Amino acid sequence: MEPINEIKELVRVLNNAAKAYYQEKQEIMSNLEYDRLYDRLLLLEKQTKIVLANSPTQKVGYEVLSSLPKENHTYPMLSLDKTKSVDDLKDWLGSKKGLLSWKLDGLTVVMTYNNGELVKAVTRGNGITGEVITNNARVFKNIPAKIPFERNLVIRGEAVIKYSDFYEINEHLEKDEQYKNPRNLCSGSVRQLNNQITADRNVNFFAFQLVEAENIIFNDSKFEQLKWLESQGFETVESSFVTSEKLEEIVEKFKSKISDNDIGSDGLVITFDSVQYSETLGATSKFPKHSLAFKWKDEIAQTNLLKIEWSASRTGLINPIAVFVPVEIEGTTVSRASVHNLSILEELELGEGDLIEVYKANMIIPQIASNITKSNSIKIPKSCPVCNEIAETKNLNGVKQLYCTNIDCPAKKIKGFSHFVSRDALNIEGLSEAGIEKLVQNGLLHSLEDIFKLKDKKSIIVNMEGFGIKSYENLIISIEKARKVKLPNLIYALGIANIGLANAKLICKHFNNNMDLILNAKQEELVNIEGFGEMIAKAVTAYFGEEKNIKVIKALEKELILVKEESLIKEQKLTGKTFVITGELVEYKNRNELKNHIEALGGKIASAVSSKTDYLINNDINSNSSKNKKAKQLGVEIIDEKGFLQLIN
User: Fold this and answer.
1) Residue 167: CB atoms within 10 Å
2) Cβ distance 409 to 384 under 8 Å?
């Protein structure tokens, strides 16, 4: 494997392992294996002088700016002329060799490196002046922080956010705060003043043009330049050599990849491969003559609108959804499309039975292109489809939206339901947030205890979109299993402000696993719990002080079997002690079992060795792992599992 490819693969594997361990509480590789791969990555980075920005060897220093300065581009960045005809592409290319690549739907950025490090990054802006985003570009997920080439290097590329990251980010936002597409999210992420936000958004950069590489002479080929950029650690936009004879075939190959492509694209770009020939062509007042954009022809199908469904969200926003006679577009059958808001609904003048034209935006997202009949007979509902309380129209920044006015609308509780069934709470598998939303919209979930009554709703659930007999059966099995729950998990599941699972365990430990004592706890009692302050104590007493919350708990107690943790009443031998666990285990089945034992005895678990660590547990006491080195440096005692068992016995 090429060193640069091995570096990318090591970064991917190590980052996945770290995410699984620290965020998902899963161990997908031993610490011994992690340390081995980490040391291999360090060696390769030293040998190649290529260090990726998201490498686990890099400690990112986040920074907040007061504003983004503006700067003029050395070389103006003109937009490209466009066509939707493959024949136009053939005529344009003629007998020359070309390079065909994705036209990525993101934000164009100019990167400048010097002495092997990124020194400047500027957005395209208006083509003449852009915004300096160097601070943010340094935390793009896949750019190299260091490269072997130490002279001046200027490149252009596209900053993008992948669909997979886009959907995940949107899932954690309220409905009316969600971004419409990855491009909008990327634009906002790249231009943040706090680059930690940029880092959290997983922005990727794909180079598509080498502008300047000081004192390097290439063969007369843009393709060769892109390959050289890859050798420096950059990811480049996917490209293919083309001639007029092969052009239609290559276009079709790109088209066939769209549905599986994780990166947004609004077409293709063709450019002459010859650098020298391109430079002789010059430009018009608007477009360079060396490249041409190819836009996909939208496949438009006619169908009839059956109805408008009204979908309520957790923010109270009620969205219109067009349901129409199923029609095939771009190889898939579609029957629904979001109309987004009342303004668009009114503009389209929709009515049941109308003949409408439907297409897929960027060949992916179903949209209504036009309404031929325009009967304009759709009535705006006066009540929420979920709770039947009053719905009102609001005009926000010139856009009409419909909202439910009921603060206790079940649709607004979707996030609470989702938290309640999450892994560290009731751990009910098979209930995604999207699934919960469907159950709410069908009137099956009004309060938390309704989850345990879903077994009586089989005939409705198996006929809902996204469900079936098998998924229903698996869901009911998971729900029945969840009836047996430990008190800390139930306390956490309630969604009390500032009470994560760790704090829930501390509360249960302090009150000896007695629910009645917890419900009646006073603020002055709670502040005596280690790690609790006035803010947390207030949040707990405020929650249990509301009668509606007590009713929820009492209703849940009728459905649940509380499993007491005997370990909570054991002698707290490890109170005040902090442990870090590393390496493979022998005495314990897995790391979670050891972690739970330590916490049951009053100890704390940390992910990294620091001056506050009391013990590092590692069966390989004499290894040269990074954690062992840190422990020795700080004077932290390293013990194996047998040493730990001696400590607690």
Assistant:
1) 11
2) yes
The model's pLDDT over 517-527, given as tens digits with 9 standing for 90+, comes to 999 999 888 88
* Position 21 pLDDT exceeds 60: no
Do 241 and 93 meet the contact criterion of CB atoms below 8 Å apart? no
pLDDT band at 313; cut points 50, 70, 90: confident
Active site residues: 103
The amino acid sitting at 449 is E
Neighbours of 563 (CB within 10 A): 14
For residue 14, the one-letter residue type is L
DSSP label of 97: -
The confidence band for 638, taking pLDDT boundaries of 50, 70 and 90, is very high
Q: What are 328's two structure tokens?
A: 């095939």
In angstroms, the Cα distances linking 115 to 49, 138, 458 are 11, 15, 66
Lookup: tokens for 18: 């770290």
Per-residue confidence band for 176, with pLDDT thresholds at 50, 70 and 90: low
Q: What rounded mean pLDDT belongs to the chain?
A: 86
Closest-CA residue to 361 (of 105, 186, 79): 105
Q: What confidence tier does 61 reach under pLDDT thresholds 50, 70, 90?
A: low
- For every residue of 150-204, DSSP letters joined together read -S-EEEEEEEE--HHHHHHHHHTS-GGGS-SSHHHHHHHHHT-SBHHHHHHTT-E
- Write out the H or E segment, with its range, that includes residue 368: strand 365-371
Tens of pLDDT, residues 187-214: 888 988 888 888 888 999 999 999 999 9
The CA distances from residue 319 to 384, 428, 624, in Å, are 11, 28, 58
Alpha carbons 163 and 473: distance in angstroms, whole number: 31
3-state SS assignment for residue 387 = coil
Return the structure tokens found at 271: 């450019």
From the CB of residue 83, how many other CB atoms can be counted at a distance below 10 Å? 17
352 within 8 A of 279, measured Cβ to Cβ:
no
- Burial class of residue 165 (count of CB atoms within 10 Å of its CB; 0-12, 13-18, 19+): buried
Strand 355-361 to 391-396 pairing: unpaired
Please give the pLDDT value at position 134. 94
Length of the chain: 649
DSSP string computed for 320-333 = EEEEEEEEEETTEE
- Three-state DSSP class for 234? coil
**Residue range 293-303, pLDDT digits in tens:** 998 777 789 99
